[in-house]
Design goal:
Chain lengths: ~280, ~300
């Protein structure tokens, strides 16, 4: 699925609901503990193809831990994760990346000393096939490859509207733009599933709107499945198809935004129970 | 005037050789964020391997060509350095992904002592020779301009040229290849690099091999000047101020730093030395670095780190 080879303006899109497909990612009975601290207890949920799946919950509910399990950063002590009919218990980040799962980070983890262009180019790393010696003499295949990859990266830069900052070291960009570069680097992998860890944290209203637009466009135009953690309830209710709610490492709700909003457990977790 | 130029030129050439060792530090730091204390030990280890292989090969295989012996020695030593890189990744660094810089530094300190000891165990601890046939005779330049001309050591001149070529190649490799880019990415953030599918372990083997290669070249050049012996690993101590002066992350910085310190110590030794009793050469680099650090804590060419508060 080489979505980026096509110009971004795609033809007629089917109505959203009918585009959501089969289950692509399934998390089954996952438990994760750090020493005596239980971060996740018996969590199960699934993600369907093309859907926007949100994970919400109060601070410390285990959202990031859950994402890190899917991404292979943590290995859960119990349970399994199934991705496209392949079930696995032990997985490292690189293997997960090879299967087509990309992610962004809550606290930015960009390559600060490198330019925007180079940061996004690193996302193409898995697609580079030439070996060290070909690159060293920069001859034939290596040069063609570099040019091809560069074109794909330029499309992403256009898409995210960061053309003027191409050569700027990312460390010098304002926070909102750095978040975009983080997204760009993940997009460069042409992932089938994109994990976003609080893509809108710390942004102002305008930046949030931009980011929402990008996330929805990625979902619509590339058909990328999106799993996102977000704190802003307005955003979550607006853009997601289904929502998982965590509290103290346990799943307390799962369903459409409407179902979740009226779920009494969720309300008490967020507002506290009346006495 | 002629004498001053002579001093400066000899300083530049020594400086180039410092740069070569400093380059090894910079490469590993740039690509893995590790300050590799073992660089000096690697120089010694590589030079020992080269010297002994070049000695053993003709004896065991029964040929008499100096060139072939050196060539086999070089290839053998390079293979040893790649194997060492692989083992270091396997046994040490691979286990320490995402650890603090200080932990990694301590690990390389361990590697230093191991390489020094192990190298002398298997290769012996005598003084060995590397003779790659660099011409030893001095030449006189500018004889028409200055009286007596400027005396330049040919060996130093070739060594400086080799060092300059290596430095150019390595900086281009870092800047313009996708592997170079992946190396820089790993240096900035292990976790993020893994998440986009950059194989950390392979990158580390590559970097340590490249650093092993610079150590080998430095070892050959220093070894053919001074003889291959334990004190070779102390060359690293000369390279330390160079790295700090140039900035840990900058390849050009390693070069310029090396040149500044090379020239500085020679000129100060000759012109200031006599009035305070000499011996300036040994500590000049460190003092210079102290002053530079007061003004530019990141070194002359290092990346300035600005943190959001």
């Amino acid at each position: 699925m080489n979505v980026l080879a096509e110009p971004l303006a795609t033809a007629e899109l089917a109505p959203k609901a009918s585009r959501i497909g089969e289950v692509i990612l399934e998390v089954k009975n996952i438990s994760l503990a750090f020493g005596g601290v239980k971060a996740l207890t018996d969590i199960s949920f699934d993600v369907r193809e093309h859907e926007v799946r949100a994970i919400i919950g109060p601070n410390g509910a285990g959202k990031s831990s859950l994402l890190n399990c899917i991404n292979g950063v943590y290995t859960p002590q119990q349970g399994s994760i199934t991705f496209r009919d392949r079930t696995f218990n032990h997985m490292n980040s690189r293997q997960v990346a090879e299967m087509g799962v990309a992610r962004t980070f809550q606290s930015l983890a960009l390559f600060k000393g490198m330019s925007v262009l180079d940061n996004i180019m690193t996302g193409r790393n898995l697609r580079m096939k030439t070996n060290l010696f070909q690159q060293a003499i920069r001859w034939g295949a290596a040069e063609r490859e570099e040019i091809e990859q560069r074109e794909a990266v330029e499309r992403i830069i256009d898409f995210l509207e960061i053309q003027p900052y191409r050569k700027t070291p990312v460390g010098r960009l304002p926070y909102g733009l750095q978040k975009r570069v983080d997204l760009g680097r993940a997009l460069a992998m042409e992932p089938s599933v994109l994990l976003l860890d609080e893509p809108m944290a710390g942004m102002n209203v305008e930046e949030k709107q931009d980011m929402c637009r990008f996330v929805l466009d990625v979902n619509d135009e590339f058909g990328t499945t999106i799993v996102l953690i977000e704190h802003d309830m307005g955003v979550v209710m607006d853009i997601s198809d289904r929502v998982v709610v965590l509290d103290y490492g346990k799943k307390i709700g799962d369903g459409t935004p409407e179902q979740v909003r009226t779920n009494p457990d969720v309300i008490s977790a967020y507002l506290g129970t009346g006495h | 005037m002629g004498f001053l130029i002579e001093t400066v030129i000899s300083g530049l050439m020594t400086g180039m050789l410092y740069s070569l060792v400093a380059l090894g530090f910079v490469l590993i730091f740039k690509a893995s964020g590790v300050f590799n204390f073992a660089q000096g030990a690697m120089v010694l280890f590589a030079a020992l391997a080269m010297a002994r292989f070049a000695e053993w090969a003709p004896a065991h295989l029964g040929f008499d060509s100096k060139l072939l012996a050196n060539l086999l020695g070089f290839v053998g030593a390079m293979l040893v350095m790649v194997a060492a890189a692989w083992l270091i990744e396997r046994l040490v660094l691979g286990k320490l992904v995402n650890q603090e810089g200080i932990t990694l530094l301590m690990a390389t300190l361990g590697i230093t002592y191991f390489l020094e000891g192990f190298g002398q165990t298997i290769f012996g601890n005598d003084i060995y020779n590397i003779d790659i046939g660099l011409p030893k005779d001095p030449v006189f330049l500018f004889e028409s301009v200055f009286q007596g001309g400027v005396l330049v050591n040919k060996e130093d001149l070739y060594a400086a040229l080799i060092a300059a070529a290596m430095v150019t190649l390595l900086s281009m490799f870092f800047q313009y290849t996708s592997t170079g880019r992946a190396l820089r990415a790993v240096a900035d953030d292990h976790q993020a690099a893994q998440s986009i599918g950059i194989p950390l372990n392979r990158i580390w083997v590559i970097v340590w091999s490249v650093a092993g290669f610079t150590a080998l070249v430095a070892g050959i050049i220093w070894g053919s000047k001074l003889g291959v012996q334990f004190s070779l690993s102390l060359v690293a101590l000369k390279a330390l101020p160079v790295v700090i002066l140039g900035g840990l992350t900058s390849v050009p910085g390693a070069i310029v730093g090396g040149l500044i310190i090379g020239v500085g110590e020679k000129v100060s030794e000759v012109y200031i030395g006599p009035s305070i009793g000499g011996g300036i050469e040994i500590w000049f680099g460190y003092v210079l670095v102290l002053f530079v650090l007061l003004v530019r804590p990141q070194g002359l060419f290092g990346e300035k780190i600005i943190d959001r508060v």
